[in-house]
Write a sequence for this structure.
């Protein structure tokens, strides 16, 4: 039964992204990217989360949602989430009060329609083989996008990790925060419980998403700031999903 549910959700994703994506790309000729975000991207992303919930049985519950700034007192924000699944890449843009800009590898731009949409809504694509150039691009474009009201989201572990495991936390997100005077918001998410990485099958259950308090990067060093973010995320993961860390 789970396999049938999963097939239905993925089929809906593939079928629905074609008209929505084409409409977004065509509208990009006339509209600003923030309008494209709220008119096309967010409704579709919420639809994916809704399909996973209604059809796939993947529920979620929020903790600490009040820690997401709802005003411009923290205009520059870098989100640092745990990364276990594809689920959170759809979820975070659908629930934040500001448009998001992911930092992602440029190869994703080659995906028909989906990649075109990512380019149209102005995110930060980098060449991972050229680290120095990649960091310069992240710093320059990150500041421009945050000045325009977007938040930047970077997965500090870089890639998806197995449930109950920990990847190497890299300092790219905190380097950006220090360079731009941004706030860093750590987020723990137990998505591996319901949508394991490298899997096309859902496991019905509840994903916990816990948002930590914003941490100012002013006067901080990227390394020690990331150490603080890592400690909070990993401790919160063990609180939310203790059976995975036995």
């Amino acid at each position: 039964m789970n396999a049938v549910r999963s097939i239905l959700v993925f089929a809906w994703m593939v079928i629905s992204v074609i008209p929505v994506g084409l409409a977004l790309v065509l509208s990009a000729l006339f509209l600003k990217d923030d309008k494209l975000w709220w008119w096309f991207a967010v409704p579709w992303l919420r639809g994916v989360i809704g399909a996973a919930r209604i059809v796939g049985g993947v529920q979620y519950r929020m903790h600490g949602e009040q820690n997401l700034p709802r005003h411009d007192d923290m205009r520059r924000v870098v989100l640092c989430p745990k990364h276990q699944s594809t689920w959170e890449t759809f979820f975070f843009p659908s629930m934040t009060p500001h448009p998001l800009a992911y930092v992602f590898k440029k190869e994703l731009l080659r995906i028909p329609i989906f990649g075109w949409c990512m380019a149209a809504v102005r995110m930060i694509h980098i060449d991972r083989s050229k680290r120095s150039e990649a960091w310069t691009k992240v710093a320059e474009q990150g500041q421009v996008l945050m000045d325009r009201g977007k938040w930047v989201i970077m997965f500090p572990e870089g890639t998806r990790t197995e449930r109950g495991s920990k990847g190497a936390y890299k300092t790219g997100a905190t380097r950006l925060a220090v360079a731009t005077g941004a706030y860093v918001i750590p987020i723990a998410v137990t998505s591996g419980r319901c949508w394991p990485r490298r899997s096309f099958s859902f496991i019905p259950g509840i994903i916990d998403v816990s948002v930590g308090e914003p941490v100012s990067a002013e006067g901080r060093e990227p390394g020690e700031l990331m150490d603080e973010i890592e400690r909070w995320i990993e401790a919160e993961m063990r609180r939310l999903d203790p059976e995975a860390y036995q």
Summary: The domain at 2-245 is CATH 3.40.1130 (Glycerol-3-phosphate (1)-acyltransferase). Helices lie at 2-27, 33-54, 87-95, 114-120, 131-147, 172-180, 222-240.
